[in-house]
Amino acid sequence: MIISIASGKGGTGKTTVAVNLALSLSSAYVGTIQIIDCDVEEPNAHIFLKPHITKTLPISIPVPRVIEKRCTYCGKCQEVCVYNAIAVIKNSTQNDPLTDSQTSAPGGKVLIFPELCHSCGGCSLFCPEKAIEEVGREIGIIQIGTAGNIEFVDGKLNIGEAMSPPLIRAVKKNITNNKVVIIDAPPGTSCPVIGSIKGSDYCILVTEPTPFGMNDLILAVEVIRKLNIAFGVVINRTDIPTASGQTGYQEVENYCSKENIPVLMRIPFDRKIAESYSKGIPMVEFIPEYITKFIQLFNNIKKSNHK
Fold first, then answer.
1. What is the pLDDT of residues 83-96, one digit of tens each?
2. In angstroms, rounded to a whole number, what is the distance separating the alpha carbons of residues 171 and 59?
3. How many other CB atoms sit within 10 Å of the CB of residue 71?
4. Which of 8, 50, 158, 163 fits as disulfide partner to 220, beta carbons 3.0 to 4.6 Å?
5. How many Å is the maximal CA-CA distance in the chain?
């Protein structure tokens, strides 16, 4: 079973839920639990799990390289590339002083912008002179290890890289389908999130009872429904005081009730939880009674997923 943990915004507690759910299940179920940290721009599950890394793999994507001696600067590659990763600059037209006519100077320049390249291969496929070859460009690494009986995989995108989905896809290739797999997805509702949660059996949306949390929860729900993935909500810091002095922002609860979205778990605004987080200690180790609550969360998912 593959369970992804997502949210419309950052800072709601995705990693908190992912890590503590994995640890709770690892203490109660026979077999290995696998946690996949797909938040490759800011992976932080390792801070709490402290895994022993056994393997580090560099990940590269193919990008074009021009074979200058074959190139005629026809511009076909630029025309084909919908991502504007290639620009062809032909030498400018010149006046011939003997004939007083204009002639085109031979040659030119092909500019490649590898950060924009989506590795579709179209430029090399359609080049009439076969003047484009593909070479590997490293975009990040994958780390594989263990934390007790939890299998751990995460990815780290190189600084300055613009696109994380290729690395996320490489991370997800390490999923073992016959195990309980927990995916810690990036925040938001853009391509990295969709790439992370796609193929999940169930998605947990972690939100907070604030106007911002409410707004981004609605966006996340729309995405999950488009992907046709079963889902439920975990409300973190559920009793946080509002500006009006009330406890919690009730609109989140009202929205879930109106949309028939199951609220799988409510995590209170608790100083002990904040202290454990600040020390890099998982909640279930700092407050062991939460093990039962996270196991119940998993049981609720199994029940709702088999209806």
1. 999 999 987 655 55
2. 9
3. 19
4. 8
5. 92
